[in-house]
Every structure is written in structure tokens, then in C-alpha cells.
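Colleagues,

For the teaching module next term, I've prepared a clean inverse folding example: a structure given as C-alpha cells, and then the sequence designed for it. I'd like students to try predicting residues themselves before seeing the answer, so please don't circulate the second half yet.
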């Protein structure tokens, strides 16, 4: 049986997510907030949950119904088992459903039994009827299990991997996060280099389904081939580095990375081939005509020009990129913690 999925992501990561899914052999259609995958081979729900680094959640579309009477045709019990389920009903923006939500709810309860703790079914109402999906992820997928401590402005793991992809980074290319905070970029990158699956240390909603395929799950969790990669994180704040160290240990990649206390405005060129210098820069506010963090951004740009010529750069920031004094080749808007930011990339001259 094929599977139809809606894979949601952080706004701005839709296109990189579709590339990641293509890398798993899935043809995805980009829509606002994620990607639709129709007719994916059996086992794709499991594979995307366990292996996608960019997805926030995987919903399994069980069917499209034109009337509540058609509910009985959905193989809900066969897929999910006999227990109670949760039901969320929402309307497509701007669409007024011909059948009230209450009628859909009553039909679902009549067909499948009581509501309660259990799989989360969602009914999306439109003029044409209703799309029924079940959440297969459980907690959002950025919760990988390893990062139990964060710094002041933590970055979701899914966004960190999205930024790495937007920068065109792949295992093998040296990577240096010069403001690593709790270590999100370096941990995501080191896990990729080691071939570790992002979902290896967390539970998923699909594990409680009657249709759960333990063999497909074990296969999806198998590590990929490692690629030797130099990964370093540095930060001025010793406390943040302690958090990064503990998170890296929990993720099982501590031995493969370097963590150092350094000022991003006074960098020294590392030996070895150039790579990607990355950072989630602190966000500032506009104070009158001037950007509050102008001096820090100027200092980082100057340090890169002095010491990292020939390296590629990728920064996640809200504004103030001109202060870096670097030629920016591409800018991609992405949402971080509810704020529209951008990923700026280029090469240090
Ligand atoms: C937005 S946070 C980065 C968060 C990080 N991406 C994470 O996942 O936790 C910015 C970081 O820049 C660091 N920072 C600020 N000024 C710095 C400087 N001059 N040199 C190095 N790090 C600096 C802060 O200590 C903070 O950890």
C-alpha cells in the first residue's frame, strides 16, 4: 500500500525539505509550511520521521472524504488499532465547509468509537469535504532527545540542519560555528558526518499504531556510512560551551568535534582546507538609524576577511547584514522562533 504524507517544516525551509525528501527517493510538492508526498512507498512514514533532519512533523493522509457517510471506508481501525483516539477539526483558511464540524465529529465517533488519549486524528474541512490525517510523529521532530539543555537563544535542530542545507554544506567539508551557543549546528553537522539518524534516541507516535512495522523501523535507524569531517564550535561564553559539551556528549558525537572558548572578532586561521564558517548571530534592535549590534557584526566580518579568506560563510540573522562588510551572494528568509530572519551566504574574499 502506498502512503500519502504531509511533511511540515519551519516556514522558509519548504524547498530544502523537498530536496531532502528527494534524496530519500520521494517526490515532494512544495506547499506553504511543508511538502506533500503522494503515493510514497510503504514504510515512508517511518523513514521520514526517523531520517529527516528538516521535518517538524509527519502527518499521514488517510483519505479525502466528500461526506461524513464516507468515514466508514477509511481503514482507521486497521491502521491504528482498537483504542481511543484524539480528534482535531479545523477549516482550511477561507473555506466554509458545507457540513458543520459537529456532524463530522459525530460521524467519526459513531464509526470508530470513543475519544480519549491515543493517536491524534485531524479533520481538515474544505468546501469539497474533508481530509483525514493522523499524526505519526508525536512530539515535534526537532526534539531529538540529546539536547536537554539550551542557551539563551537556542536554535531548533531542524532549523539548524535547514540552514546547513541552505549553505550547501555536506559532510566532508570543514565546518566552524564561531558562535556555537548550546552547539546546535555542530551537533547536527557531526551527527550527519557520523551517519547517525536524527530520530535514533526518541519515541514516535507511529510506534503505538497497530500497523507499526518494527523491521522497517530498525532498518530506518541503521546508521549511514561515516565521512571524516572537521567540525569546530567556539563561543565567548564559557557557560554556553559547557552546555554544548554536555549536549554533544549526550548525542554521542563529543569525541568527533572541537569546542573552544574564542572571540568571533579575533579568529585565527585553522590549518587545513577552507570550509564553511557559520553562526546564528545575536539579534539586535534598531536604535534610531543605527543597528545595535553594528560593532559586533563589523568585528566578525573583519575577522573573517583577516583570517578566513577563501572560506564560505553562512549566517542566520534578523537584520544588520551590511555591517559584516562581506559580499552576500544569496539571502533566504526563514522563520526562527516566530521572527522572520534570513540566511545570508557567500565567500570570504
Ligand atoms: C544566538 S546565540 C547562538 C545560539 C546557538 N546557535 C545555539 O544553538 O544555542 C549567539 C551566541 O553568540 C555568542 N557570542 C556573542 N558575542 C560573541 C563573540 N564576540 N564571540 C563569540 N561568541 C559570541 C553568545 O555567547 C551566544 O552563545
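(Answer key — instructors only)
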Amino acid at each position: 500500500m502506498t502512503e500519502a504524507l504531509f511533511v511540515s517544516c519551519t516556514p522558509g525551509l519548504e524547498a530544502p525539505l523537498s530536496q531532502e525528501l528527494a534524496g530519500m527517493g520521494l517526490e515532494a510538492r512544495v506547499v506553504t509550511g511543508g511538502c506533500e508526498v503522494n503515493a510514497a512507498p510503504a514504510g515512508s512514514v517511518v523513514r521520514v520521521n526517523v531520517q529527516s533532519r528538516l521535518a517538524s512533523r509527519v502527518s499521514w493522509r488517510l483519505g479525502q472524504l466528500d461526506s461524513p457517510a464516507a468515514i466508514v471506508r477509511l481503514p482507521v481501525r486497521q491502521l491504528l488499532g482498537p483504542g481511543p483516539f484524539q480528534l482535531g477539526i479545523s477549516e482550511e483558511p477561507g473555506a466554509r465547509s458545507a457540513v458543520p464540524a459537529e456532524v463530522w465529529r459525530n460521524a467519526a465517533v459513531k464509526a470508530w468509537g470513543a475519544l480519549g488519549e491515543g493517536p491524534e486524528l485531524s479533520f481538515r474541512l474544505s468546501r469539497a469535504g474533508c481530509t483525514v490525517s493522523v499524526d505519526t510523529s508525536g512530539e515535534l521532530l526537532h526534539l531529538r532527545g540529546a539536547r536537554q539543555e539550551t542557551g539563551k537563544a537556542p536554535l531548533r535542530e531542524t532549523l539548524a540542519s535547514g540552514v546547513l542545507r541552505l549553505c550547501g554544506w555536506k559532510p566532508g567539508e570543514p565546518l566552524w560555528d564561531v558562535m556555537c551557543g548550546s552547539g546546535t549546528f555542530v551537533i547536527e553537522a557531526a551527527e550527519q558526518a557520523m551517519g547517525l539518524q536524527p530520530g535514533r534516541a526518541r519515541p514516535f507516535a507511529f510506534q503505538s499504531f497497530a500497523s507499526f512495522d518494527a523491521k522497517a523501523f530498525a532498518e530506518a535507524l541503521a546508521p549511514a556510512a561515516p565521512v571524516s569531517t572537521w567540525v569546530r564550535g567556539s563561543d565567548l561564553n564559557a557557560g554556553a560551551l559547557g552546555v554544548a559539551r554536555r549536549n554533544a556528549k549526550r548525542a554521542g558525537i563529543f569525541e568527533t568535534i572541537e569546542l573552544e572558548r574564542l572571540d568571533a572578532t579575533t579568529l585565527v586561521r585553522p590549518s587545513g582546507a577552507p570550509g564553511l564558517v557559520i553562526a546564528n548571530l545575536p539579534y539586535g534592535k534598531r536604535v534610531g538609524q543605527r543597528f545595535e549590534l553594528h560593532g559586533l557584526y563589523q568585528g566578525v566580518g573583519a575577522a573573517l576577511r583577516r583570517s578566513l579568506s577563501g572560506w564560505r560563510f553562512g549566517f542566520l540573522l534578523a537584520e544588520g547584514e551590511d555591517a559584516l562588510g562581506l559580499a552576500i551572494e544569496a539571502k533566504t528568509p526563514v522563520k526562527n522562533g516566530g521572527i522572520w530572519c534570513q540566511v545570508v551566504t557567500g565567500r570570504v574574499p
